[in-house]
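Dear colleagues,

As part of the handover before I leave the project, I'm documenting each prediction I ran so the next person doesn't have to rerun anything. This entry is a single chain, and its sequence is reproduced below.
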Amino acid sequence: MIAFLLLGALALVGAVVTVAARNAVHAALGLVGTLLSVAGLFASLSASFLAAVQVIVYAGAILVLFLFVIMLLNAHQPVTGRDPVPFVRELAGIGGVILAGALAVIAFSYRDPQPLAQGTAALRGGTAGAVGETLLTRFLLPFEAVSVLLLVAIVGAVALVRRPAPQPDGVTDAEGVALPGELPERTAPEGGVRA
């Protein structure tokens, strides 16, 4: 019980750091703490496979991906200035209150869908075979949807960091964007010949 309370408190502290940190790297480190604490919670519940997957996939691979995106976007500097989206904090607060209310309704109206002994027997001790069989048969569509979502996130990160090719100095189109392959028109000094 002490381990559960300690790991739960660490997970909450990491979550608060993740949300409240102004530096993106500090937020990612808070997320690492949360994910490792959740892995510890899984281990304390004798779900060793889920604990290992939590550490390897989320605290390892996904966090490395997040850190690469942070570094590629040069987002490791603190956030300053005003928000680019107006009223984003107010909307986030309203969304948070609605989410908390929905979770409270779910928590107080929850009924166990099957007896605990039957659910425990269906898990077969939380072994890799039982989890894999359930994941790749009954939950195949959500599993593949998550993989497509991660792929879209990677493509979006690459699109965000793509830098335009260097352009010749001084040549712009109607919108002020440099045109590739054109040289600027030069004017000669007074009385001279234009090049």
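The chain has a mean pLDDT of 77. DSSP finds seven helices and no strands in the chain.

All the best with the project,
I.
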